[in-house]
Design a protein that fits this description.
CATH topology of the largest domain in chain A: Uridine Diphospho-n-acetylenolpyruvylglucosamine Reductase, domain 3
Oligomer: heterodimer
CATH architecture of the largest domain in chain A: 2-Layer Sandwich
Structural class of chain B: alpha+beta
Mean pLDDT of chain B: 96
Radius of gyration of chain A: 24 Å
Number of helices of chain A: 18
CATH topology of the largest domain in chain B: Uridine Diphospho-n-acetylenolpyruvylglucosamine Reductase, domain 3
Number of domains of chain A: 3
Shape of chain A: globular
C-alpha cells in the first residue's frame, strides 16, 4: 500500500509541533514517546501499520478547534481516530501526520426521551448508547459487529451498518445532527433534534466521509423503542440458488425482516465446530431470518416465511420458540469470524455489495477464483441487502500468501462491481479499497467527489491517502474547460 | 421569455450544459414545472426542460431498486410500484394544488431535488434516505455518477444525499436510483378527540416512544379538522390527534387495541379504517387545507417535536393564521394572511426564540415578488453559509444551474 511520501521538512520540525500542541492540549494529551505511539500504528485492518509522528488526545471542542487551526496553519496532516476498529484502514496513521484521537470525548450529554434522541460525544461506544437508554425500553438501531468497542464518531465517519440495517437503516438514517470542526478550526452544527436540513444536506455527506471532510465532536442520534418480540427461523438449503430464491421470495411477499443472514458450507462447518449450536452440516447454504415487532405480527409473519422456505425447498427448518433458541441460531453466525480464525491462521474479510439475484453466479465465480490461487473462502452474507462478507483464508507466515489473499480480494470486489454492485457496503474504502475506486467510478465521478473535498479542505490535510487513489489538486479540479464557444450539438431540440 | 431547450436523453443534457457554458448562459432546470413555486424565482437565460427524459431504466422489486430518468411522472411511477405492492416509503407529497396547479403533475426529478417527504418521513426517512444514486451533468459540463444501484453502499462520498434536496443547484440529473419498499397491506388511524395542542404533543411523544410502531403522528386543531374531506374527522367538531399504524392486519389490529387502551384516559377516541386513513394522511402530506388560497402565504417549520405547540400556538395566534402539526409535532404547517415580507421576520424571530437554532422555517407559498426579495429557506449562520457556497461552487463554479433558487447569489 503506497501512502503519500512523508515530507522530510515536516518530520524535521517534530519537536516544534509537539511543544505547540502541548500548549493547546496540556498534560498527557500529547503523545510523542515512541513506545506509546506504537499503540496507534494500526486500526482494525492490522495488515497495514505506520507509526504516527504525534498523537493528540484533546478533551474539549475548543482544543480540537485550536489543534486543527494550528495544523492548518503549519500544513500538518491530521488523521482523526475514534476507537480504531475500522476494517478498511480509515485510521491508518501517516509518518508525517498527527493522530487526532477523540477517545476522551466519552460522555453521553443528554438523553431526550420526549424527542426520542440522544446527544453523545463521539468517543462513546455504539453499545453504550443503547445501554444508556435501555432502562426506558429504547435502543440505538445500527449494530455493527464491533459495537462493544467501536465509537459513535467512527460510526458517523464510516456510515456503519450492521445485521439489522435492512429494516432500520445505516448510521446515516439514524443520525439527526452533528457538531463538526473544519480543518481551519471553524465549529459548525449540522442538523439537531429536528428533521431535514435547512438547505444543502451537509450532514448527509459528512456521514460516511471517512474523516476526510471534518472532525465530529458531538452526535445526535435517533433512539427507538425496542421491539416487543424477536423470533427467528433457521433454514438449510441443498443449493445456494434455492436459498437466494427464498430471500427474494420473502421480500417479494412484502416482508422486510429485521435480519436476513446467509452462510455457506465452509462458514457453517467452521461455526458449528466452534460453538456447536446444532447447525445442519449437510446443506450448502444456511439462512437465519429474524422477525421483530408485536407478538401478533411476528407470529403471523413467521408462518408466512415458513411457507416460503418450504416452497423454496428448505431441507432443514427450525423456528425459535424462546429467546435461548433464537440466540442459539445467531450464536454461530456471530462467532463466524473467530470460528474461521480457528480453521485458518489468518483471514481477510471483504465487504462488497451485489444485487442479490447475482449471488449464485458470484459465489461460483469466487470459488473458481479461490481455487485458481489455492486459497479457500468462507462466506457470510447480509442476504437481505446483498452485502457480502467473504472471508479469505490464508497463512501470513507462508511467503507471498498475504499478497495472494489481497489479490483475490481485489478480484472479488471487481467481480462485485461487474455484476452491478459496489466495493463496500459498510466497512468503508479507507486505504484497503482505495486503489480499486477506479473500478467502480470513472474519472469524472471521482473528480466530483474530490471537488467536494476541496470545499471542506482545499489543502488536503484531513486524512490524505485514504479513499482516493490520487491526491487532489484543488486548483486543477476547479477549472472549467469551455469548448471554444462553439455549439456542439446544433440538432438539439430548442423552442 | 427565455428560450427553452428540451433534451431527449442524457447525452443531450450534457451537450446542452456544455453549450450553456460556452455561451455563458444560465439554466433553469424543470421537469413537469409543478414545483416552480418552491424556492426563490429563478431568472435564467434558458429553460432546460427535462420532461422528455421519462425512461424507467430498471425496476427490480426483489432488489428493492428503481432507476428512472428525472422526467418520469411520479403518479405513473407510483402506479407501477403499486402493481407490485411497493411504494416510495417517504410518502411523496403533491404540492401542485398548494400552488394552485392541478394535482398529479410532478416528476421524480422534482420530487428528489426538492427533497421533501410526507407524514411517514418521521418513521421511514425522507427522499434523502431513499435516494441511492444519481447520474447527472455538473456545472463543468461533465457527466458523472454518484452512489450506486444497491441498497447498501458506503463507497466514496455520499454525493447523492447532497444532490437530493439541492433544488437543482448542483447538477442537471439524468438518472435517479431509488430504494423502493413493500407497501403495508393494512393501515388504521387512531383518533383522539379534543386535546389541546400542548396535550397533543405529549400524547404523540408517548405514542411514538411506545412499541406500537406508530408510522406517523399529527394533530389538527379544530379549525383544520373541520375542513377535512374525511367525514369522520369533520364529524368530531373538535381538534383531532392522529396516530397511524401500518402493517399486516393482525399486527395493526393488535397494536390499535393496545394503543387505544393505553391512551383511554385521555378522552374520546375514534378509529379510521384503511381507506379513510389513506385519504386523511394525503391531506396532511399535501397541506390540502391551504390549497389555492388567494392572498395567504404558507410556511413549513421543522423543530424538535416537543417544541411544536410552543411555536405553533404562538405564531398562529400572533399572526391570525391557521396551523397544524405533522411529524409528532416537529413539522408545523402555517397559513398566514398575506404580507409584504410574508411575515418572514416575525416567523423567524419566534422560531429563534423558541428553538434557538435547532430548526428552520421554509416559505412554501408566496407571490413571486415576495419570494424574490425574502429568504425562502432559513438564513444560514455565516460559517455554514460560506461552506454551503463553497460546496455549490465545486459542482457549478459558474453558477449556471438555477441561479438564486435557494439563496440570493447561490
Amino acid at each position: 500500500m503506497l501512502m503519500p511520501t512523508p515530507d522530510a521538512g515536516l518530520l524535521a520540525r517534530r519537536a516544534e509541533f509537539v511543544s505547540a500542541l502541548r500548549a493547546i492540549v496540556p498534560g498527557e494529551g500529547v503523545i510523542s514517546d515512541d513506545a506509546e505511539l506504537a499503540a496507534y500504528e494500526c486500526d482494525g485492518l492490522t495488515a497495514y501499520r505506520q507509526r504516527p509522528m504525534i498523537v493528540v488526545l484533546p478533551t474539549t471542542v475548543d482544543q480540537v478547534s485550536r489543534v486543527l487551526a494550528y495544523c492548518h496553519s503549519q500544513g500538518l496532516k491530521v488523521v482523526p481516530r475514534g476507537a480504531g476498529t475500522s476494517l478498511s484502514g480509515g485510521a491508518l496513521p501517516l509518518a508525517d501526520g498527527i493522530i487526532l484521537g477523540l477517545g476522551k470525548f466519552n460522555r453521553i450529554l443528554e438523553v431526550d426521551y420526549e424527542n426520542r434522541c440522544a446527544v453523545v460525544q463521539p468517543g462513546v461506544t455504539n453499545l453504550a448508547v443503547t445501554q444508556a437508554v435501555a432502562s426506558e425500553g429504547f435502543y440505538y438501531a445500527p449494530d455493527p459487529s464491533s459495537q462493544i468497542a467501536c465509537s459513535i464518531g467512527g460510526n458517523v465517519a464510516e456510515n456503519a451498518g450492521g445485521v439489522h440495517c435492512l429494516k432500520y437503516g445505516m448510521t446515516t438514517n439514524n443520525l439527526l445532527g452533528v457538531e463538526v470542526v473544519l480543518i481551519d478550526g471553524t465549529v459548525l452544527r449540522l442538523g439537531g433534534k429536528h428533521l431535514d436540513p435547512a438547505a444543502l444536506d451537509l450532514l448527509g455527506v459528512v456521514c460516511g466521509s471517512e474523516g476526510l471532510l471534518a472532525v465530529v465532536t458531538e452526535v445526535t442520534v435517533r433512539i427507538l423503542q425496542a421491539p416487543e418480540t424477536q423470533r427467528a427461523l433457521l433454514m438449510g438449503f441443498a443449493e445456494v440458488e434455492a436459498a437466494g430464491a427464498c430471500v427474494a421470495a420473502v421480500i417479494a411477499a412484502g416482508i422486510i425482516p429485521a435480519g436476513m443472514e446467509m452462510m455457506d458450507r465452509l462458514a457453517i462447518s467452521a461455526a458449528e465446530a466452534f460453538v456447536k449450536v446444532g447447525y445442519p452440516l449437510d446443506v450448502e447454504a444456511l439462512l437465519i431470518i429474524e422477525l421483530d415487532g408485536p407478538p401478533a405480527e411476528v407470529d403471523h409473519l413467521i408462518e408466512v416465511v415458513r411457507e416460503i422456505g418450504e416452497g423454496c425447498g428448505a431441507s432443514y427448518l427450525r423456528i425459535s420458540m424462546n429467546e435461548d433458541e433464537r440466540k442459539g441460531f445467531w450464536a454461530g453466525r456471530k462467532a463466524a469470524f473467530p470460528a474461521v480464525g480457528r480453521i485458518s491462521p489468518d483471514y481477510y474479510c471483504m465487504d462488497g455489495t451485489i444485487p442479490r439475484a447475482a449471488l449464485p453466479k458470484v459465489l461460483r465465480r469466487m470459488n473458481e477464483l479461490a481455487d485458481g490461487c489455492g486459497l479457500r473462502i468462507a462466506n457470510v452474507f447480509h442476504a437481505g441487502d446483498g452485502n457480502l462478507h467473504p472471508l479469505i483464508l490464508y497463512d501470513a507466515d507462508k511467503p507471498g500468501e498475504l499478497h495472494k489473499a489481497e489479490e483475490l480480494g481485489a478480484a472479488i470486489l471487481t467481480l462485485c462491481v461487474e455484476v452491478g454492485g459496489v466495493l463496500t457496503g459498510e466497512h468503508g474504502v479507507g486505504v484497503e479499497k482505495r486503489d480499486l475506486m477506479e473500478v467502480q467510478f470513472g474519472p469524472a465521478d471521482l473528480e466530483q467527489q474530490q471537488r467536494l473535498k476541496c470545499a471542506f479542505d482545499d489543502d488536503g490535510l484531513l486524512n490524505p491517502g485514504k479513499v482516493f487513489p490520487k491526491l487532489c489538486r484543488c486548483a486543477e479540479l476547479g477549472r472549467v474547460h469551455i469548448h471554444g464557444g462553439k455549439v456542439r450539438f446544433p440538432e438539439l431540440d430548442r423552442f | 421569455m427565455p428560450e427553452t431547450w428540451k433534451p431527449k436523453d442524457a447525452a443531450d443534457v450534457a451537450s446542452a450544459v456544455g453549450d450553456a457554458l460556452s455561451a455563458g448562459k444560465s439554466l433553469e432546470l424543470i421537469g413537469g414545472g409543478s414545483r416552480r413555486g418552491f424556492g426563490r424565482p429563478v431568472e435564467a437565460d434558458v429553460v432546460l426542460d427535462l420532461s422528455a427524459l421519462t425512461e424507467v431504466l430498471t425496476y427490480q422489486p426483489e432488489e428493492l431498486i428503481l432507476a428512472v430518468a428525472p422526467g418520469a411522472r411520479l403518479a405513473e411511477i407510483e402506479a407501477m410500484l403499486g402493481e407490485r405492492g411497493q411504494q416510495l416509503a417517504f410518502e411523496p407529497p403533491d404540492f401542485g394544488p398548494l400552488w394552485g396547479l392541478p394535482a398529479g403533475r410532478g416528476t421524480i426529478g422534482g420530487l428528489v431535488m426538492t427533497g421533501r417527504g410526507g407524514p411517514r418521513r418521521l418513521s421511514a426517512g425522507g427522499p434523502r434516505d431513499h435516494c441511492l444514486g444519481v447520474k447527472g451533468v455538473n456545472g463543468f459540463g461533465e457527466a458523472f455518477a454518484a452512489g450506486g444501484r444497491v441498497v447498501k453502499n458506503v463507497t466514496g462520498f455520499d454525493l447523492t444525499k447532497l444532490i437530493t434536496g439541492s433544488f437543482g443547484t448542483l447538477c442537471a440529473a439524468t438518472e435517479l436510483t431509488l430504494k423502493v419498499l413493500p407497501a403495508a397491506s393494512d393501515a388504521a388511524t387512531l383518533v383522539l378527540v379534543g386535546l389541546s395542542d400542548e396535550a397533543a404533543m405529549s400524547v404523540m411523544s408517548k405514542a411514538l416512544g411506545s412499541s406500537a410502531q406508530v408510522s406517523s403522528a399529527a394533530h389538527l386543531p379544530a379549525d383544520i379538522a373541520r375542513a377535512s374531506s374525511v367525514p369522520e374527522i369533520v364529524g368530531q367538531s373538535a381538534a383531532v390527534t392522529l396516530l397511524r399504524l401500518e402493517g399486516v392486519r393482525p399486527s395493526v389490529t393488535a397494536r390499535v387495541a393496545h394503543l387505544a387502551d393505553t391512551l383511554q384516559a385521555l378522552g374520546p377516541q375514534a378509529l379510521l379504517g384503511r381507506e379513510q386513513s389513506v385519504a386523511l394522511w394525503k391531506e396532511i402530506a399535501d397541506a390540502a387545507w391551504f390549497a389555492g388560497g388567494g392572498d395567504t402565504v404558507v410556511w413549513k417549520l421543522s423543530v424538535p417535536p416537543s417544541k411544536g405547540a410552543a411555536v405553533g400556538a404562538r405564531l398562529a395566534g400572533e399572526l391570525s393564521g391557521r396551523c397544524y402539526y405533522d411529524w409528532g409535532g416537529g413539522g408545523i404547517w402555517f397559513e398566514l394572511p398575506g404580507a409584504d415580507d410574508a411575515h418572514a421576520a416575525h416567523v423567524r424571530r419566534v422560531l429563534n426564540e423558541v428553538v434557538a437554532g435547532d430548526g428552520h422555517a421554509t416559505l412554501m407559498r408566496a407571490p413571486d415578488a415576495v419570494r424574490g426579495t425574502e429568504d425562502v429557506f432559513q438564513p444560514l449562520a455565516p460559517a455554514l453559509a460560506a461552506l454551503t457556497r463553497r460546496v455549490q461552487q465545486q459542482f457549478d463554479p459558474q453558477g449556471i444551474f438555477n441561479p438564486g433558487r435557494m439563496y440570493g447569489g447561490l
